[in-house]
Design the sequence.
């Protein structure tokens, strides 16, 4: 289950960092930063939703609010008829940075979400399966600080996928991965989505990932962020952007929207 309805979502921050004497100083203390205002969106149960937009436009903030880790200034997020007031154990979040618990090993981090598997042999088998999937065999007993950035990212993805959550939120999950691992893990996420049909909401800077993966893409602009493209993608799978004229045109359109007019 994972139907998400966002209504009138607004977020602003009040700048409390730099206290300045000059009341006319635009960047001064007390200034309100409008991240986004009156956003309405609806995602169907089982959809893979990809959110794109320029850096700093509010993608992570919105994802954190949808997942219940942050609160909105106004507006609501309703999931399967219930208003979100905090994080749910059935919904897993892959953070943009430092999502692993630093005092736990890779094995223990993956085990965290699997404590409901009471049969120890089955639990251990599941942990190993996901550690192998993200190619961290041999590093089970390493702590996050002993891993490279890409390895940490893989461990986090393994942990999230192992939980088999109702909703998976991912904030730039492929950032920091080498190219081949990026493609392999992307394939795993696509397969998992195809077979399990869970709702997934992913923030990404990779336009091609969004076009290959998404059932629905949302593109934001900035200050305050507005939805400039909201499109259901009904292209057959597996997708190939080069071979599908509809997808290549859409790719050009999204690049243009994000300020890149020429892409090789
Ligand atoms: N705790 C905070 N206090 C004040 N301002 C904040 C806070 N968190 C985020 N912001 C501001 O909100 C805006 C949106 O930040 P957010 O992290 O959501 O952007 P983003 O779209 O995820 O960017 P990126 O693509 O670089 O990750 C930015 O202007 C940021 O400075
Ligand atoms: Mg972000």
Sequence:
């Amino acid at each position: 289950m994972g139907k998400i309805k966002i209504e009138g979502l607004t977020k602003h921050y009040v700048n409390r960092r730099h206290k300045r004497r000059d009341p006319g100083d635009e960047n001064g203390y007390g200034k309100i930063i409008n991240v986004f205002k009156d956003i309405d969106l609806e995602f169907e149960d089982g959809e893979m939703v990809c959110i794109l937009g320029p850096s700093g436009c509010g993608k992570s903030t919105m994802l954190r609010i949808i997942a219940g880790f942050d609160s909105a200034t106004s507006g609501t997020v309703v999931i399967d008829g219930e208003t979100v007031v905090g994080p749910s154990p059935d919904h897993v979040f892959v953070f943009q940075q430092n999502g692993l618990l630093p005092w736990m090993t890779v094995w223990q981090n993956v085990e965290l979400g699997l404590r409901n598997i009471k049969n120890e042999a089955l639990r251990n088998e599941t942990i190993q399966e996901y550690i192998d999937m993200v190619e961290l065999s041999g590093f089970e007993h390493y702590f996050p600080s002993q891993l490279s950035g890409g390895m940490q990212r893989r461990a986090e993805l393994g942990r999230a996928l192992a939980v088999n959550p109702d909703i998976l939120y991912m904030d730039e999950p492929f950032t920091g991965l080498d190219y081949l691992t990026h493609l392999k893990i992307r394939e795993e996420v696509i397969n998992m989505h195809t077979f399990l049909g869970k709702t997934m909401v992913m923030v990404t800077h990779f336009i091609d990932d969004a076009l290959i993966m998404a059932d629905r893409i949302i593109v934001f602009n900035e200050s305050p962020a507005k939805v400039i493209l909201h499109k259901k993608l009904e292209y057959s799978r597996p997708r190939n952007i080069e071979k599908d004229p509809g997808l290549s045109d859409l790719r050009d359109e999204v690049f243009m929207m994000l300020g890149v007019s020429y892409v090789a």
